C-alpha cells in the first residue's frame, strides 16, 4: 500500500508526533523472545514472541507501545522492560512504567509501577534472579525529580542525592549505584536490606559498573585531565587499580589541566560550587581571558569527567582561556532542594550564581583579565547566553548553542511539554504566562548588545531552529554583531566528526577574535 502512495504527508492527531530528532512512524522498538535449542552441532531458534504485543492495544498506531529498555534475569526465565504507556498526554506526562514477565511463550506482562506517575528506569535483576530493583521518580510531570531505589514494592530514600545507574552485587546483598555528588559521579554501595550507604570512590566520574565477584568491581573512570579507562575497585579496601591506558600515546603529545574546586555564596545565600581549569602554558605572572561555560538542563551538572562533546573545558584552556564552570541552582548533586529551586527561576537564581561566581574568580584570581571575558552555553546554557545578553554587557562575546530565545514560542515548538510546564508553566494559563514572561530573554531584546555566535541544528526538536534564527534575526536587524552557524543534518548535539571540527573552528575563532586572544595553534 505504501509503495502505491503518491504523496509524502504525515498525519497526526496525538501531540507525540516527534521526539528529539525523529518524527513518529509506524515502526516502534519491541522486545522479542525465542527459544534457543542445540541439536548435535547446530543451534536452532524457535518462533519469536513479541512481548509488547501482550499489552493492551491502542487505536493510534503512531503512539503504540514502544520498549525503551529491558533486562533479562541471569537464568533467562524472566524479563523486565521499560515502556512509556500510549496516551493522549504523552508530551506533557513523564509516566514511564516497568513491566515484569516470564520469557516463556504466552506469559502476560505484569505492571510493577501502576501506582506511580513518574518515570521509572534502569531495571536490574539480582544475580539469583529473585529480586528486581529499579530507579523511580514519583512526581508527575517533573523529569528531574529525585530517583528512589525500588526493590519490588520497597522504596529506600536514605539520601538526598539522586542515583542514575544501578547494578546488583554478586552476592545479592547490596546494590551499586553511580550518584552525582558535588560535581563528581561516585560509586555508592547500598545494603539492600538496611539501606546503609558506603561511598567507594571519591574523585572523578565513574560509569559502567560490572561486579566480578563479591568484592571486586570493574568500572570506567575519567577525570577532567584523564580520558576514560577501565579500572578495578576492591569494595572492601576501596583500592583502585587502572587496567587500561587507551590514550597513553596521544596524551604524551597533549597538555590537559586539572579542574580546581571553588565555592562561593550564590543566590538565596546558598553555597555554590564551581570549577576552574587553567590555560595551556599557565604563568601566574601573566593575565588571561576568561571563558565561562554554562551547562544545559538546567537540571544537569558539569562534573569532574572527561567530555568528548563540545564542552570539554580543556578545549578552551588550550586556546589560552581560564575556563570557569559553575554548577548553578538546578544542578543535581547538591541535594534535591537545590535542584528543585530553579523551578520558576530560570532567569533568576542561575544568573545570580553565574555573575557572583565570575565576581569571585576575578577578585581572587588576579591572573584573569576581567575586560576579556566570554560566556558560552548549549541548551539551557544557550538560553542563559541569551538571558545574559539582555541583562549585562560585561562579556566581550557570547555563544548560544541551541538556546531558547522566547519561552513562549519555545513552549509551542518543543517536543516534550512536561519540561516547560513543570519548570515555567503554560502560556494560556494567567499565572503560567506571568512566569514565562518573567523568564523570557526575548522580552529584553532591546538590551542585546554583546556580539553573539548562534549555533543550531535543524533536527533539534527540543529547541526548534526558529529560536536561534529569531535571536540572530533580531540582532542583525538591530545592527548588533551576530553570526549564525547552521547544521542542517545535526540535532541537539553535534554528532558528526567533520561537523564537530567545524563547530570548534567557528566557536574558537569567535571567542579569540572578540577577546583579541592569540591561541597557541592555528584555528582556521
Overall description:
- By secondary structure, the chain is α+β, with helices and mostly antiparallel strands.
- The protein is built from ten helices and 30 strands.
- The strands form eight sheets. An eight-stranded mixed beta sheet has the order 23-24-26-25-27-28-29-30, sandwiched between helices.
- A hairpin with a 2-residue loop joins strand 1 (18-19) and strand 2.
- The chain starts with 17 loop residues before the first strand and ends in a 9-residue tail after the last helix.
- The model has no long low-confidence stretch (mean pLDDT 89).
User: Beta fraction of the residues?
Assistant: 25-35%
- In the sheet with the most strands, the strands line up as 23-24-26-25-27-28-29-30
Q: Give the distance, in angstroms, between the N- and C-terminal Cα atoms.
A: 51 Å
Q: So how many helices?
A: 10
Number of strands: 30
Main sheet makeup: 8 strands, mixed
Helix content: 10-25%
Low-pLDDT segments, ≥5 res: none
Mean pLDDT: 89
Going by helix content, strand content and strand pairing, the class is alpha+beta
CA radius of gyration:
25 Å
**Outline type:** globular
Amino acid at each position: 500500500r505504501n509503495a502505491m502512495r503518491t504523496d509524502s504527508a504525515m498525519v497526526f492527531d496525538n501531540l507525540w508526533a516527534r521526539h528529539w530528532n525523529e518524527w513518529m512512524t509506524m515502526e516502534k522498538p519491541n522486545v522479542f523472545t525465542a527459544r534457543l535449542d542445540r541439536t548435535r552441532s547446530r543451534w536452532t531458534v524457535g518462533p519469536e514472541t513479541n512481548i509488547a504485543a501482550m499489552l493492551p492495544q491502542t487505536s493510534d498506531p503512531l503512539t503504540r507501545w514502544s520498549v525503551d529498555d529491558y533486562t533479562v534475569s541471569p537464568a533467562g526465565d524472566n524479563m523486565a522492560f521499560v515502556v512509556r504507556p500510549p496516551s493522549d498526554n504523552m508530551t506533557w506526562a513523564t509516566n514511564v512504567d516497568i513491566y515484569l514477565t516470564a520469557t516463556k511463550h504466552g506469559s502476560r506482562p505484569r505492571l510493577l509501577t501502576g501506582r506511580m506517575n513518574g518515570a521509572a528506569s534502569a531495571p536490574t535483576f539480582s544475580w539469583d534472579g529473585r529480586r528486581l530493583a529499579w530507579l523511580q521518580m514519583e512526581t508527575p510531570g517533573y523529569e528531574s525529580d529525585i530517583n528512589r531505589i525500588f526493590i519490588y514494592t520497597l522504596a529506600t530514600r536514605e539520601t538526598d542525592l539522586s542515583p542514575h545507574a544501578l547494578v546488583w552485587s554478586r552476592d545479592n546483598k547490596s546494590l551499586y549505584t553511580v550518584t552525582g555528588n558535588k560535581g563528581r559521579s561516585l560509586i555508592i554501595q547500598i545494603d539492600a536490606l538496611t539501606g546503609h550507604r558506603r561511598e567507594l570512590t571519591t574523585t572523578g566520574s565513574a560509569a559502567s559498573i560490572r561486579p566480578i565477584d563479591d568484592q571486586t568491581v570493574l568500572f570506567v573512570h575519567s577525570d577532567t585531565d584523564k580520558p576514560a579507562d577501565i579500572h578495578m575497585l576492591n569494595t572492601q579496601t576501596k583500592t583502585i587499580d587502572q587496567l587500561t591506558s587507551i590514550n597513553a600515546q596521544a596524551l604524551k603529545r597533549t597538555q590537559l589541566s586539572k579542574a580546581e574546586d571553588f565555592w562561593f555564596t550564590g543566590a538565596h545565600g546558598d553555597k555554590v560550587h564551581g570549577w576552574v581549569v587553567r590555560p595551556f602554558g599557565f604563568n601566574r605572572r601573566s593575565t588571561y581571558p576568561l571563558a565561562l561555560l554554562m551547562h544545559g538542563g538546567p537540571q544537569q551538572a558539569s562534573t569532574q569527567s572527561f567530555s568528548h562533546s563540545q564542552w570539554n573545558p580543556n578545549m578552551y584552556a588550550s586556546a589560552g582561556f581560564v575556563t570557569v564552570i559553575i554548577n548553578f541552582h538546578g544542578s543535581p548533586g547538591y541535594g534535591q532542594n537545590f535542584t528543585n529551586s530553579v523551578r520558576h527561576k530560570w532567569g533568576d537564581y542561575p544568573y545570580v550564581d553565574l555573575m557572583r561566581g565570575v565576581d569571585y574568580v576575578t577578585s581572587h584570581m588576579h591572573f584573569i583579565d576581567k575586560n576579556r571575558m566570554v560566556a558560552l552555553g548549549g541548551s539551557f546554557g544557550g538560553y542563559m547566553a541569551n538571558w545574559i545578553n539582555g541583562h549585562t554587557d560585561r562579556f566581550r562575546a557570547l555563544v548560544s548553542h541551541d538556546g531558547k530565545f522566547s519561552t513562549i514560542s519555545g513552549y509551542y515548538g518543543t517536543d516534550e511539554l512536561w519540561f516547560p510546564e513543570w519548570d515555567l508553566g503554560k502560556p494560556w494559563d494567567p499565572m503560567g504566562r506571568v512566569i514565562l514572561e518573567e523568564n523570557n530573554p526575548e522580552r529584553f531584546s532591546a538590551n542585546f548588545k554583546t556580539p553573539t555566535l548562534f549555533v543550531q541544528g535543524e533536527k533539534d526538536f527540543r529547541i526548534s531552529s526558529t529560536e536561534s534564527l529569531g535571536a540572530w534575526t533580531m540582532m542583525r536587524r538591530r545592527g548588533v554583531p551576530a553570526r549564525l552557524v547552521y547544521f542542517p543534518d545535526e540535532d541537539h548535539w553535534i554528532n558528526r566528526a567533520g561537523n564537530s571540527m567545524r563547530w570548534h573552528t567557528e566557536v574558537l575563532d569567535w571567542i579569540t577574535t572578540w577577546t583579541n586572544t592569540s591561541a597557541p595553534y592555528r584555528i582556521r
